[in-house]
Amino acid sequence: MSCCDTTGLLSITDAIERMKTIPSNNKSLLSIEIDSAFGHVLAEDVISSVQVPPQDNSAMDGYAVNNLGCNDDHVYTIVGNVLAGQVYQDTLGPGECVRIMTGASIPCGTQAVVMQEYAIAQQQQVTFNKKLTPEAHIRRAGEDITNNQIILTAGTVLGAAQLGLLSATGHNTVNVAPPLTVGIFATGDELLTPKEQPKTGHIYESNRIVCTSKLRALGCRVIDFGIVADTKAALIQTFDNAAQQCDIVITSGGVSVGDADFVKEVLVENGQIDFWKIAIKPGKPFAFGQYRNKVFFGLPGNPVASFVTFDVLVAPIIKHMQGQKNTSLITLTANCNSDIHKRGGRADYQRGYVWHDNGQLNVKSAGAQGSHILSSLSQANAYIVLNEHQETIIAGDSVSVILFDSIYPK
Q1: What are 59-112's pLDDT values in tens digits?
Q2: How far lies 94's CA from each of 12, 57, 78, 108, 224, in Å?
Q3: Which domains does the chain have, with CATH numbers?
């Protein structure tokens, strides 16, 4: 099969749908404290046992007043002072007010809170140079969250806002999906680690550290099995070790046409291959299957192809396995500032650089687009997504983009 032949290639949509038949990991629970829950996925709904705010309180520094029967120029009597955390025990009568701070409980009888900027106070009396509005600046108990309300649903990724909500409702612990354990290794006798000296005919391997970084950003535990020799015995031993310890096994290299068939042979003998080639560029030689009932992803050896297929094909499925509700990549529209040439037949995820200019989202090519070129990838912050039917893009055309930062939680 030539590099341009698309016969028998599975579409990205079909590949993802087939991979999503894997059951999610949300049937088991792990209870953890919220200060270590960032990035975890909720395994069940969270219900509030309190209301927020817990009582009526002031939204401003100023005066809580009872203006029943009072005209606009009424002189009010200041009968007390209420700080946050304090409770005024008496009921305000008509024409009475208390000095009140933001967050302090509203006294009974309060009709409105007047901001201190509109107050003219003299000793124990005060007038206001603004017409009073009923209910102004009063936060009513439970107006944000009511008792027994579902505040977060299963499948939610816990970020800063969600953790703040849990803390505000008195939750110290939360039940999450246990982290997935992922084993990763690279195959290839030509590969070196960065600790080794350069050798003729060899290259430094970079895919494992890239994938490990992405996996950790997804909240996975990672076991790195290193670089494995291109022999069947070495592959079987490493696959077996990974399958015993991990939920998912990821390999880099050994899945392209012309590569040694040992990875494919080992999978056929000890598991199954669901599909082997995808209509995506870069990354056509992407494999998916099972090894001893553990999920298997086979990434291409070319660094950019490995990078792209992980983001587009692996990350959404890991999110699905974690029980996340939203697993699709977020696509935006941008004005393309570069001419882009592409052949039809495969979806192309070109590397681009996105920026804002006068409210317009713009994108340009990040440089050379070869599947082995990491330098332009390091200058990119987004994918320019061209579907299988698109070909040449002219500068000024609108294109779809996926921001790198939108794929992984912060």
Answers
A1: 999 999 999 888 888 999 999 999 999 999 999 999 999 999 999 999 999 999
A2: 70, 19, 12, 12, 73
A3: 12-25+178-321 (3.40.980.10), 30-51+145-176 (3.90.105.10), 57-139 (2.170.190.11), 332-406 (2.40.340.10)
